[in-house]
Design a protein that fits this description.
Chains A, B: One of its GO terms (molecular function) is DNA-binding transcription factor activity. Chains A, B: This is Fur family peroxide stress response transcriptional regulator. Chains A, B: Keywords: DNA-binding, Metal-binding, Repressor, Transcription, Transcription regulation, Zinc. Two copies of one chain form a homodimer. Chain A is of the alpha+beta class and about 140 residues long. Chain A has two domains: about 1-70, Arc Repressor Mutant, subunit A; about 90-140, Dna Ligase, domain 1 (2-Layer Sandwich), CATH 3.30.1490. Chain A contains six helices and six strands, in the order ααααββββαββα. Chain A has helices at about 1-15, 20-35, 40-50, 55-70, 105-110, 135-140; strands at about 75, 85, 90-95, 100-105, 120, 125-135. Chain A has a four-stranded mixed β-sheet. In chain A, strand 5 (about 120) and strand 6 form a beta hairpin. In chain A, helix 2 (about 20-35) crosses helix 3 (about 40-50). The first copy, chain A, starts with a helix and ends with a helix. Chains A and B meet through helix 3, strand 1, strand 2, strand 3 and strand 4 of A and helix 3, strand 1, strand 2, strand 3 and strand 4 of B. Strand 2 of chain A pairs antiparallel with strand 1 of chain B. The structure holds manganese (II) ion (2 copies) and zinc ion (2 copies). One manganese (II) ion binds next to strand 3 of chain B. Chain A binds a DNA duplex (30 and 30 nucleotides) through helix 2 and helix 4.
Chain lengths: ~140, ~140
DNA sequence: TTATCGGACGATAATCTTTATCGTTTATAC
DNA sequence: GTATAAACGATAAAGATTATCGTCCGATAA
């Protein structure tokens, strides 16, 4: 149902107060067809087939918009620069989805269970790294 | 025990077949004193106080060496470029520590339990994102 | 339908992070 | 002490992302 899809995307844009542009709509539709965890460059390469004149900057800007709107999600909250872990204790992380702040939380404090060391595909488990995604106290106030 | 610390670091280097240089040793000692999740730039700023002539490239190279040797650990396995999640299902990720390949694993398949939505510091939980760190099948063969 | 206006676009420069290059210096083994 | 390979510092280059800015277009209302 192309018409229905179009209406859905139109509504989606209205909900988020953004214009329904040709580039934005094609980008959305192309992304819907993709699998795995594509990078902006990979998305760009696909969209270019349908809108050859599109700019990489437009792809970045709209992916960010989609992520902010909750239409798509980024694989990792901390994909920025390299960070070194200085906490020797067994622990996991609380990551604020607003300000990206990373706070340690002890393994016991988090209270997860059941670590299998056999996983599909013959994957050999070394350890679990849990990110608790949410809103930190400061960002809840604002 | 400075002498003892020095011997420890010397042994550490010998185990990993790397030379004991002044820069490398100061870098190691400075990092040991740091807390949280510093970036290479932040480490560089600290080390520069003791070895003003050190290069940022040297900091990067040695942090990588330390991480490879298991002396320090990076906070996130996927801190590279932005990746968009295209899998709608509730799932987590298996991340290969050798080749960095990311594979989906269903939430039920992983079989974790207990999601608290109250965490220390008034952190409001949205979701859990689990990275299972390990070695993928391909890298196990090689 | 048309005029208006703010948002969106494309091109590209700029920024930020990380890596590669290369001549010089230094640690290690003999 | 000398030879050799590794490590260093300076800096260019690469890769990813963002900022800038002139132009264009979609949304709104006359
Ligand atoms: Mn930590
Ligand atoms: Mn996934
Ligand atoms: Zn926050
Ligand atoms: Zn692998």
């Amino acid at each position: 149902m192309l018409v229905n899809e179009a209406r859905t995307f139109r509504e989606l844009c209205q909900e988020n107060g953004i214009a329904v542009t040709h580039q934005r709509q094609v980008l959305y539709e192309v992304m819907k067809t993709m699998h795995g965890h594509p990078s902006p460059e990979e998305v760009y390469a696909q969209v270019k087939k349908k809108v050859p004149a599109i700019s990489l900057a437009t792809v970045y800007k709209n992916i960010h918009l989609f992520v902010e709107s909750g239409v798509f999600r980024e694989v990792s909250m901390h994909h920025g620069s390299l960070r070194v872990e200085m906490n020797d204790e067994s622990h996991h992380h609380m990551v604020c989805s607003k300000c990206k702040a990373i706070t340690d939380i002890g393994e016991k404090e988090l209270g997860l269970v059941s670590k299998q060391d056999k996983l599909p595909g013959g994957f050999l488990v070394e350890r679990y790294a849990v990110d608790v995604i949410g809103i930190c106290a400061k960002c809840q106030q604002a």
